[in-house]
Amino acid sequence: MAKYIIRRLLWVIVLLFLVTLLTFVVFYLLPSADPATLRAGRQPNPALVAQIRHNLGLDKPWYTQYYNYMKALVLHFDFGYSYQSNVAVRTLIFSRLPATISLTVGAAVVWLISGIAVGIISAVRRRSKFDRAAMGSALVAISAPVFWLGLLSLFLFADDIGKIPIFPGAGSYVPLSQNPEKWFTSLIMPWFVLAASFAAIYARLLRANLIEVMSEDYIRTARAKGLTERRVIFHHGVRAAITPIVTAAGLDVGVLLGGAILTETVFNIPGVGRLAYDSILAGDLPMIQGTVLLGAFFIVIANLVVDVAYAFIDPRVRYS
User: Fold this and answer.
1) Kindly report the CA angle at 202 between 245 and 243, in degrees rounded to 5?
2) Would you state the pLDDT for residue 313?
3) DSSP-derived 3-state class of residue 212
4) How far does Cα 63 stand from its chain's mean position?
5) Nearest Cα to 122, choosing from 5, 204, 42, 200?
């Protein structure tokens, strides 16, 4: 197991290097806004634009800029400075990261609990009224875009514009360290909006897998040995059927930790996703590079955690 983890960690380094290189290449090869022109104001003159390009180092070849960027990143963990605000990228990202983590972790708890519970009940009570209603609702949740569901939630339940004012509206996010109660209430709607489609997908996926597993020979053998139905379902059935759920959860959480752009935008949450979106509009390469690298890091680490978790969830999985 230790050798496997070390091998994967080395691949993480290689993948992150490739991500940074690809981001640089895409930024320079594809048409994009000129950061110097954007920073020069509404009526820039060529001399001012040239001066800004020189100050930002944009007049150097892209491979020289990339070398300087990687040198600062590897030696000093320095992501550079934003072209727009001239603030350290690392400072901006770390200041936004707690909001994204709060949103992602809370939503993951909601969708895992609800999705797994609904999936198990629907599989055990197949073709029942609950199963039909749950799977029908799941299709609706999967089909509903996140931004539309977020706007609908604000229209119905926001305390400033909602028809049934229950929860704080957009822009009400408060850090956990400042006020835990307001932090919790401000994220209730974003959690459920973000979790809706994931919970529906997980419920349908677990239902299909569990139905298939419950027809296996070893399940009939377990029942023949006199084990309780609850133990057969949870110890033998769910344990074998939940492996795809773990895979999906690792990828989804990793992606969202890199920024849930739509949800953060609709609810005006100052997270990494909103920061990445604003950086793309402004052509802010250091900020784009930092947010992309952060997202890639979370995704590859989440995959590593999932692979290691397999050995504990499924006894058939062994790493050497």
Assistant:
1) 15
2) 67
3) helix
4) 30
5) 204
One-letter amino acid at 170 equals: A
Give the HSE-up count for residue 259: Cα atoms under 13 Å, Cβ half-sphere.
25
Which string of DSSP letters, residue by residue, matches 248-263? HHHHHHHHHHT--HHH
**Contact assessment for residue 317 and residue 309, using Cβ atoms and an 8 Å cutoff:** no
* Tokens matching residue 294: 């952060």
Question: Quick check: 29 and 310 in contact, CB under 8 A?
Answer: no
The CA angle 264-279-262, to the nearest 5 degrees, is 20
Cα separation, 306 vs 300, in Å, equals 10
pLDDT in tens, 155-189: 988 887 778 888 888 888 999 889 999 999 999 99
Neighbours of 242 (CB within 10 A): 22
Which CATH code fits 96-313?
1.10.3720.10
Of 64, 53, 62, 74, give the one whose Cα is nearest residue 26. Answer: 62
Longest dimension (CA), the chain: 85
Q: How far apart are CA 313 and CA 309, in angstroms?
A: 6
Q: Is 282 helix (H, G, I), strand (E, B) or coil?
A: helix
As a whole number of angstroms, the distance between CA 195 and CA 183 comes to 18
From CA 55, how far away is CA 49, in angstroms rounded? 10
Kindly list the domain boundaries of the chain, sorted by start residue.
96-313
Q: Are the beta carbons of 82 and 276 closer than 8 angstroms?
A: no
pLDDT for 193: 93
Q: The pTM is what?
A: 0.83
User: Nearest to residue 274, comparing CAs of 24, 100, 79, 84?
Assistant: 100
Q: Per-residue DSSP letters for 15-64? A: HHHHHHHHHHHHHHHS----HHHHHT-SS--HHHHHHHHHHHTTTS-HHH
Q: Check pLDDT > 70 for residue 284.
A: yes
Residue 33 pLDDT class (50, 70, 90 cuts)? low
For residues 296 and 130, is the Cβ–Cβ distance under 8 A? no
Cβ(215)–Cβ(134) under 8 Å? no
